[in-house]
Write a structure and sequence with these properties.
This protein has 459 residues and is an alpha/beta fold. Strands 6, 7, 8, 9, 10, 13, 14, 15 and 17 form a nine-stranded mixed beta sheet that branches. It has a five-stranded mixed beta sheet with strand order 2-3-1-4-5, sandwiched between helices. A three-stranded mixed beta sheet has the order 11-12-16, with helices on one face. A hairpin with a 5-residue loop joins strand 2 (50-54) and strand 3 (60-66). The chain has helices at 23-28, 32-40, 70-74, 79-86, 102-111, 137-155, 163-177, 188-191, 195-201, 241-244, 252-266, 312-325, 339-345, 357-370, 404-416, 446-456; strands at 13-18, 50-54, 60-66, 90-94, 127-129, 180-185, 209-215, 221-226, 228-232, 272-282, 294-296, 302-304, 330-335, 350-354, 374-376, 394-395, 421-425, 429-430, 440-441.
Length: 459
């Protein structure tokens, strides 16, 4: 799916975007027939309300869109996207509209055109927006394309998006944007010292694998690691059915870093990008890894398995160790890792962990600018003892139920070494439809990271 702005044309319908408390002032400058039409149509400029206004000959002269009140707008984002979903097919151009968040509005309009139509025909919004003056249209279209990739990957069920298919997506992306790709599969994972990736994925029909993609040969080195658990049954600690229903999205971390990689490469940022995706299915078979097993990781740290449903941190651990060996300037992991993160901040915020104060500040400022909310959680050192079981270096599932997102992040930090590092524990799923974000898979944190990179890496 390609989401693009309409080309400028003289037939585009002018669109006036009006805040609720500015309606009277706007009407005062309009002819009597317009004021009468607006009053008869009961247009109040409430958030998302639209109205087509006829000209003297009966044709559409212009359209109105309501932006509501400050309070209404504070409870959401991408407000212009709800307008795009309601207007009839055609091209529209913003006219005499002053909006502080014009880029957000334009991107939201683009994303309002997204539908997941692989298995059933859908009806996307057909109102097209002419790129507003003053925005970088190509940049927004590239960002939208990355978001579409993330959403499509998460929405696709595992039948069509297992480790084999996820690898194929990576290969296609590399081919399209000029990256190099290397893949280690199956038993070769043991030969190349990725024992925990192998252990988690060996019970599935599709062999586990590690995808390694590189792009760019100049500038600072950024490495992205995405959890690619294409389905998570829980392993021998089998999930109940209700908890298994959305596990096609357990590769949401991989989907998000691939969407972000698409943005970085598509915008030709001056950096060296590396993307690592451990792609596995956590299945049940006679050779499944077991509770009580002790695995030796790539780094040499031993891990006691106290729950096979805490598998994401295992595959990420080997990938993070591998990433750190290359000494990148910054290392980011993204994963749909813990239910504790969702309990803490809900489905709309992307929680992140970092010891790098400069990155945290840049990211939080960027998140506000691009309407991609994040929330910093702590690497809390006193909890380190919770991930140390005694008979091994680390415990993959500490007992007690406390601080699950933090202990998982502390676990991962052990494998990042001294590399500047941030970890995102995202949900990757929008449970309720909202403007520009239909129910289903969604990117979280990627646009904020993209916006922060020039500051973080001094680009």
């Amino acid at each position: 799916m390609s989401l693009q702005f309409a080309s400028p044309n003289p037939n585009a319908v002018p669109l006036h975007v009006i805040e609720q408390d500015g309606l009277d002032a706007w009407l005062s400058g309009q002819p009597d027939r317009v004021r009468a039409w607006v009053a008869a149509s009961e247009f109040t400029a409430s958030l998302g309300q639209t109205l087509l206004v006829p000209g003297e000959t009966g044709d559409v002269a212009f359209a109105l869109a309501g932006l509501g009140s400050d309070t209404a707008r504070s409870r959401g984002r991408f407000h212009l996207a709800s307008v795009a979903a309601q207007l009839p097919e055609g091209d529209y151009v913003l006219s005499a509209t002053k909006m502080d968040d014009l880029e957000e509005a334009a991107l939201g309009w683009l994303l309002a055109g997204y539908t997941f139509d692989r298995y059933r025909a859908q009806k996307p919004a057909k109102a097209r927006l002419v790129a507003p003056e003053g925005i970088d249209a190509r940049r927004l279209e590239t960002i939208a394309a990355g978001e579409v990739l993330t959403r499509d990957l998460i929405n696709t069920p595992t039948w069509d998006m297992g480790p084999v298919e996820l690898e194929a997506v990576c290969a296609k992306l590399a081919d399209q944007l000029g990256a190099q790709i290397n893949v280690i599969r199956g038993e070769a994972l043991l030969e190349h010292n990725f024992p925990m990736v192998h252990a988690v994925g060996r019970a599935a029909e599709q062999a586990p694998r590690l995808v390694d993609m590189r792009w760019g040969d100049k500038g600072p080195k950024l490495t992205l690691v995405g959890k690619g658990v294409c389905f998570d049954t829980g392993g021998l600690n089998l999930k109940p059915g209700a908890s298994m229903g959305l596990m096609k999205k357990d590769m949401g971390g991989a989907a998000t870093v691939l969407g972000l990689a698409h943005m970085i490469m598509g915008l030709n940022l001056p950096l060296q990008l590396r993307v690592l995706v451990p792609a596995v299915e956590n299945a049940v078979s006679g050779n499944s890894y077991r509770p009580g097993d002790i695995l030796t990781s790539r780094s040499g740290l031993t891990v006691e398995i106290n729950n096979t449903d805490a598998e994401g941190r295992l595959v990420l651990a080997d990938a993070l160790s591998f990433a750190a060996e290359d000494d990148p300037d910054f290392l980011i992991s993204m994963a749909t890792l813990t239910g504790a993160a969702r309990v803490a901040v809900g489905p709309d915020l992307a929680p992140f962990f970092t010891d790098n104060a400069d990155f945290a500040a840049a990211l939080q400022e960027a998140a506000k600018k691009v309407a991609d909310p994040v929330w910093r959680l702590p690497f809390h050192p006193p909890y380190e003892s919770m991930i140390e079981p005694g008979i091994a270096d680390l415990d993959n599932a500490p007992k007690g139920g406390f601080a699950g997102a933090i202990t998982a992040a502390l676990f991962l930090r052990r494998f990042a070494g001294e590399t500047p590092y941030a970890h995102f524990d995202i949900y990757g799923w929008n449970p309720t439809a909202a403007p520009a974000r239909p129910k289903g898979g969604v990117g979280m944190g990627a646009r904020a990271i993209l916006q922060a990179l020039p500051t973080v890496l001094d680009l």
